[in-house]
């Protein structure tokens, strides 16, 4: 199980994520990002690849899709905040975009 | 292209949908329903089948997923409200659940 990110490690991880367009949620300890694609098939294709990765990690995103846009929120319910799993999934999402 | 549902036809279609758990959106002319599944794989598997159907219809849902839940909103942007396409997609979603 992942531990809540704290201290210097948290700052380093968050700096990397916000540098790639992730935004700290204003209401809870979570990160969000909106991914845009050429069309619905591209958007849902990416979601499908991410769904398989998320299931393998046993760490799932909160996400919504409207045509070519996918809005993702990542947080770790078990620790009530951000963990290394969120950073790992965020990086995999960015890499697969 | 689909036309906006009006009059008696609209009432008949909406009665059928609300009878199956669809709710009229309070803020705009749209319908919403939350589908619950056993787990993430079942939820995303259903979304994948629906994504292919939606693409074939060229009529796409607004939807969000959190683990085993999928919240769907259907409306037809071209007519700024509900059309027969929304009713058709809603029925296909119910049938495939």
TrEMBL record, chains A, B:
Family: Belongs to the pterin-4-alpha-carbinolamine dehydratase family.
Keyword Lyase: yes
EC identifiers of the protein: 4.2.1.96
Entry keyword Signal: no
Protein name: Putative pterin-4-alpha-carbinolamine dehydratase
A Pfam family annotated for this UniProt entry: Pterin_4a
Tree of life domain: Bacteria
UniProt-listed GO biological process terms: tetrahydrobiopterin biosynthetic process
HAMAP family noted in UniProt: Pterin_4_alpha
Organism name: Boseongicola aestuarii
Catalytic reactions on record: (4aS,6R)-4a-hydroxy-L-erythro-5,6,7,8-tetrahydrobiopterin = (6R)-L-erythro-6,7-dihydrobiopterin + H2O
